[in-house]
Each structure stands twice: as C-alpha cells, then as structure tokens.
Design a protein that fits this description.
Oligomer: single chain
Radius of gyration: 26 Å
Shape: globular
Distance between the termini: 93 Å
Helix content: under 10%
Largest sheet: 7 strands, mixed
Number of helices: 7
Number of strands: 47
Structural class: mainly beta
Length: 660
C-alpha cells in the first residue's frame, strides 16, 4: 500500500508542485462546459438532476497551459465540466436537484429557487458528505445562475459585495452553473449560446495573488483558448451573458451593433419591450448581472467580443506575464517576440467570432473585402494621423498621442496632444485614413463603434478573414484604413495593443461623424473625452486631456454634450450639477446611435459609464444662469493592486456661462 503512495509523491515532487498539496493526479480532469445541452431528465412537468460537488483540475489555457484546481458541480454519471451544468426548463416546471457534497467541508449553495418578484436569495447549507434535495417551481422566465460558497468573500475595500454573491476566491470561482427559464410554451431559439464569466484566484500563489483578474474566464476558458464562434452573414445571433463574479464588465462587440433585449441581476430578470431595447456596441454589465442580446453579422471576417477593461482582457507583461502554472509548458510563456499579436498578447475575457459570407456570386467579393484584397469604394476624402511619442512625459514613462496632420507638413514625431485629435468624418463619405506609426513599438488602432470591414478593424494578428490577417503597423511604417461611416454620431478610436500603458499615456481620441453638408455648430455641440493620463497604475482621470478641472464655457441656451469614455480600468460616474444638486438632461444617443424618440427622455443628469462607451445628452443653461453649474466626474473603481482603499477621486469641471 505504501509503495504506490511513495511513487505518486515522488512524481508530485518532480512536477514542481509543493509536496504539501493533495495528490492532484487523483482529481478528475474537467472539460469545458459550453452550455449546449441541459442537464437532468424531464418527467412530465418536473426536471430531475443530480450533482456532486467535487474538486477537479482543468486547463483554462489549453492542453499545454496551466493546470488549475477548483471546485465544481458535476452531473452524476457525466464527465466533469467547468463551469457547472446548465439547468434549463420552461416556466412552470418544477426543478428538483439532488446535491452531494464530497468536499469534506460544509458549503452553502445559492440560487436554486424561484425568482418570483419580491423573493429574496434562498440558500441551503450542506454538511460534509451529506446529500440534500432542493425542489422549486420555476415560475419566472429569465437568465439566472446558481453557485456555492465554501468560505467568506475577501471584499474589495471600496466595493463590498453581499455575502450571497459568487466568490472569485481559490476554487470557488468556477463553482457556478447556468439556470435558464424559458417562457412557457416556447422552445430555446436554435443556436442560442450562453456565455458565463467567472474568475479563479489562487491567493496562495504569489504569481497571481497581486492580479486576481489574471484568471478571468468565459465558459471556463481564457483567450485564446475560448471557443471560436462561427456564423454566416445574415444570421440572427442570440447570446445570454452571465456575469458570475463580483466585478463589472463593459462588454464590447467589434464591427456591429447589438440589441440588449433583457437585463437581470441574478435575482430578477427584465425582458425589455421593443421600445425599451437598446442598440449599443458596448454594454456595462454590473456586478453579477445578466443580459440577453441579439445581433446580425452583416460583413464577413474575424471579430472580437470582449471586456473592455485592460486587466480583464490583456497580458500586461510587467504585471502578470503568461507563465506556466503547475505543469504548464514553457510554450505558453509570453515573450517580447509575441508582443502585439492578438492570440498571444491578449488573455481572459475575449471571444473570437468568425463570420463567413453566404454562398453566391457576391461571396468572393465580400471575402476579398474582409481580408483586404479588395480596397472597396475609392476614397472621396483623405486624412492623415500620426502616432507620436515623447520620452519622460509621465515621470520616467513616455507620453503618446494621435495628431491629425493638417496640410502638407507632418507633425513632429515627439509632439504631444492630450487627448488625441478629434477626427471628423461625414456620413456616407468613403474616407481613407493614413495612420503613421511614429512610435518605437508596433501599433494597432481600433475604430471603436464603426461599422467597418474586418481588415481595417484594428486588432493586430486577428482582423481580416481566415489566414489573411492584418499585422500591426511596424515602427516608421503606415497603413491606410478605408471606411464609410454608416451613421452620424459620437465614437472613439484608440490603441488596441493591450499593454495598457499606451492607452493611459495618450493613445485615444474622439471620432465624430457629421451629416453630409451639415457641419456641427461647435459653439452648441461639445465633445468631452474622459480618459486616464499617466502610468496605467498611477495615472489620473483627465477630462479633455486636463487633470485640473479646466472650465467649460457655455452660452445660455441648449447644448449637445458628447461624452466619450475611454479609461483603462475605471468606471466613471458623470453628473451635471448646480452646486451639489443633480440637474436634468435629455438623452439623445448611445454609442453613436440616436435613441428612438420614446427613449429621448428628460431624466436626472447622472450616468455611470466605463471604457468604450459614449453617450450624447442635451442640457439647457438658463439666460439668468448663476455661475455654480458644473460637470462632476467621480472615479468609482480602481485596480486593488495599485490603488488600495483610497477614496474615489472627484474631478469637478466648472461651467463658465458666457453672456448672451
């Protein structure tokens, strides 16, 4: 009996794992759950399922990546998967789940209960080794989830979460599963997918303790090992998103708008009526929120759907390099040679979407456009933008900038402009933008919110089609982006290099699309860019490139304010105030899309946004306005590793009223 144990112990020591750990080889190797097949068996109006809660090992970064251990719900008689199984049934079904706790410690299971309006969050404690059966009638259609907790959450000092929300602590992040209740009398839409966001944190491993976001996952995997989702031009795509961790995520779709059809908080889910649905390119999904969305891919090519927080979708080499954990191969290490390549320099909450053209005479031309082999319509207008760099602008860190070249003289390669130049395009006008890379490193530029061909979308090593992908722009080189803006509105352009420092040190700007032959009245139409300036870990919130709250001058009357939010990892709460009293404004547009008339309503003048979101509002300054109006910007989230528990900073921009 002793010999097999000693052999296993020796193997464990040779693997580099601490010998004080349990023998991981005895743990089942979990597959990735894609939520395509629901668990359990239906008998009349009852769904019966049986789960064991076990410790498993799994590889979120592919067969040669890190091998991690976690707790998971495992359907009895089925292979272990991470996350847990999908429970799905029509409204009115009784769901009966038997739970067996094999972990050796007591745990508490949440979320297996009816979501009828007004109900709290039910829970059930399960002793070590015990079996418990939970039964409830699923009366309310929506997107939900269930999870278990073994120990209390380590709460963020400035954003505490209730004890009954999922944990991201060691082992517990993947201990979650999807629960979907369909409307009575309906069947799940064909091809609908469920994407569940979770995280894994090993607070005993110094390599990831300082950056708990390093193991952010969608359906148990981290990019580039997340599933590639394939569609055909013209398909109707339906996704349900579950944010099963205590962090907010601004979720961005490249190249297309999507329609938010429902939102929930894990407790309740609200299906929007047609007039309430929003058309966006970025949706801020709050702590433990859920969302249903639809969209139609109108152009072929490679696209991304990802969280826009840099630390949730990037490999920041100076903070959390990709290193093998517990048996991962050296081939997964992040090296300087892979910088700016999407599949090697991004990680975490990223999904790749590959759209193929429909068969027919135009398919070849569409594919040629997506892969850059056909330039499309000849340009009517040409612009030239230079990416510039200057050493030691932010202490020892360089500054970066985008400068719109006016006339025939190029800007100096070390000229600085914060934020980058506001580019002005015209709806329906074929435009060529030559981007010159004056940096010392490769450059990729994303045209955020623009309905554009994939080749020009701006993700180095990914944008394009099939194997024909666009590399980043080499130092000293240039690239011509061709686009025809489909709509007038407020957009942004920014670096897509994923390191974080280039964005925080200036590589972002506003992009405004005007109606043809109808230039904006810039005395009544104002662009307000919110971003970070400085090192990504210590930079300050800047409004239009200023960190000191420089005044905004307005004359009496009605004004359009175009807010562009492009920080690194922060959320920003925006308010239009008089002294400390919040005023009112009228919403006009979100993410460049004009709102339907029914949604252009007067409301309290405050809104929380995150990276990649834009919105337009209308404010009115009275003729006899006092001088105590202001825009107030509050940073409501900082990365814990650099900021600690310091108070959320507030930047106040006074409004100076110009005499009529």
């Amino acid at each position: 009996m002793l010999r097999p144990f000693l052999i296993a112990l020796a193997a464990l020591a040779l693997s580099g794992r601490p010998t004080s750990w349990p023998l991981r080889a005895a743990l089942p190797l979990a597959q990735l759950e894609d939520f395509r097949r629901p668990a359990g068996t239906r008998v009349a109006d009852t769904l019966n399922a049986s789960f064991s809660i076990r410790e498993v090992r799994w590889r979120p970064e592919g067969a040669n990546g890190a091998e991690l251990s976690a707790f998971a719900f495992v359907e009895d008689g089925k292979p272990a998967k991470v996350p847990g199984p999908l429970l799905r049934a029509p409204a009115g079904t009784t769901i009966r789940v038997t739970l067996h706790n094999t972990l050796g410690v007591q745990l508490v299971v949440f979320g297996l209960h009816d979501r009828a309006a007004g109900r709290g969050m039910d829970s059930v404690a399960i002793a070590a080794g015990a079996r418990v059966t939970v039964a409830f009638r699923a009366s309310t259609a929506g997107t939900y989830y269930y999870w278990a907790r073994v120990r209390p959450t380590v709460q963020h000092p400035t954003a505490p979460v209730p004890d009954d929300w999922p944990s991201g602590e060691k082992g517990e992040g993947p201990l979650v599963g999807a629960l979907v209740v369909d409307a009575s009398g309906t069947v799940p839409p064909r091809g609908e997918r469920i994407l569940l966001i979770s995280r894994w944190l090993d607070d005993d491993d110094a390599r990831v303790h300082h950056d708990p976001a390093f193991r952010m996952m969608i359906n148990g995997a981290s990019w580039p090992h997340t599933e590639r989702l394939g569609y055909v031009v013209g398909d109707t795509v339906r996704w349900r998103i579950i944010n099963a961790n205590a962090a907010a995520h601004p979720l961005h779709l490249h190249g297309f708008y999507f329609t938010v059809t429902a939102r929930g908080d894990g407790r309740l889910d609200t299906l929007y009526a047609e007039g309430q649905q929003r058309r966006v390119v970025t949706e801020l999904l709050p702590l433990n929120g859920t969302m249903a969305m639809t969209w139609v891919p109108e152009r072929p090519g490679n696209w991304l759907f990802h969280c826009h927080l840099v630390r949730h979708m990037a490999l920041v080499q100076s903070i959390a390099p990709r290193i093998p954990l517990r048996g991962g191969s050296a081939g997964s290490a992040h090296t300087a040679s892979s910088v700016h390549h999407a599949e090697e320099n991004m990680a975490g909450l990223v999904m790749g979407v590959q759209v193929t053209p429909r068969a027919g005479a135009t398919a070849a031309r569409a594919l040629a456009l997506a892969s850059g082999r056909n330039p499309g319509a000849p340009a009517v207008r040409s612009l030239r933008v230079v990416a510039t760099q200057r050493a030691n602008v932010f202490g020892s860190s360089p500054g970066h900038s985008f400068v719109w070249q006016r006339g025939g003289v190029a800007p100096a390669r070390d000229s600085m402009q914060f934020p980058g130049s506001t580019l002005v395009l015209h709806r329906g006008e074929p435009t060529a933008i030559t981007v010159v890379n004056g940096l010392s490193s490769p450059l990729a530029v994303h045209w955020h919110g623009m309905e554009i061909e994939s080749w020009f979308d701006g993700v180095g090593g990914w944008s394009g089609a099939g194997r024909s992908v666009r590399p980043p722009i080499a130092p000293g080189d240039s690239f011509v982006v061709r686009l025809t803006a489909a709509r007038a509105g407020t957009f942004t352009y920014h670096t897509h290099d994923e390191a974080g420092s280039e964005l925080s040190t200036g590589l972002y700007g506003a992009l405004i699309v005007e109606e043809p032959n109808a230039p904006r009245d810039t005395t009544r139409d104002h662009v307000i860019v919110m971003g970070l300036l400085g090192d990504a870990a210590t930079g300050s919130l800047a409004i239009n490139g200023r960190t000191d709250g420089a005044p905004l001058t307005l004359s009496p009357g009605t004004h359009r304010l175009r807010f562009v939010s492009i920080p690194v990892d922060e959320q920003i709460r925006v308010a239009f105030v008089r002294d400390s009293t919040v005023q009112r404004w009228r919403s006009l547009a979100t993410d460049g899309a004009e709102l339907p008339a029914a949604q252009q309503m007067q409301s309290a003048a405050r809104r929380t946004v995150s990276a990649g979101q834009t919105f337009d509002v209308e404010v009115t300054i009275p003729v006899d306005a006092p001088t105590n109006y202001a825009l107030r910007f509050t940073t409501v989230w900082y990365p814990t590793d650099a900021r600690g528990a310091q108070p959320a900073p507030v930047l106040r921009v006074p409004i100076v009223v110009r005499p009529p």
